[in-house]
Amino acid sequence: MSERKKTAILISGRGSNMSALISAAIDPRFPAEIALVVSNVPEAPGLARAEEFGIATAVVDHKEFAGDREAFERALDAILKDNGIEIVALAGFMRLLTPYLVNAWSNRLINIHPALLPSFKGLATHERALEEGVKLHGATVHFVSAEMDDGPIIIQGAVPVLDNDTPETLGKRVLEIEHQIYPKALELVASGGVKLRERRVVFTDNETEDTSARGFVSPLSR
Ligand code: GRF
Question: Which of 10, 51, 172, 213 could form a disulfide with 93 if both were Cys (CB 3.0 to 4.6 A apart)?
Fold first, then answer.
């Protein structure tokens, strides 16, 4: 078996996407090994969850860097390097990154966003999707670029927006899709199954490189 890629997950909160990635990587055939979970929030519930899984954890508290984002990122980067990390997956990591970290981890840094990018960048995505009346909403895993919620899209999952949805019910439906697509995206990146053609991510295991084959729209039940 080829070497599994040592992966770190960066979190700030509950870590349900983190748990989905860890669960997928329990299978020894999965091409990524989750070697480390790092949080910028010492009390993030996801840290305890990671420890239950037996994963090493670390905290780099951004508050200790007095607003110096790059100093915070240098500390983070040092921990990642000390642990031999090869891929970094952001999973509810609530810090805007500077070009320092983005460039240091170029093409090896991925993020999940709870909307179909480039729609609804930023926060409160489910509220805004309902306000705008979109009929499909979803989630996106993408390589991270220096812009917020931007960068080449690896995989997207869509869900229907139902007439009686609230931000909570819609968010729950999107979260289920997140837990499906994030492990799939990490698998693709860790196995070398994707490459960049300018801004487009194309799939190397497909001779025709037909990206449409990876689209996913949940069944529309009504
Ligand atoms: C998810 O909705 C993710 O898309 C967004 O932040 C949320 C994190 O949730 N970036 P969790 O901590 O993974 O449960």
Answer: 10
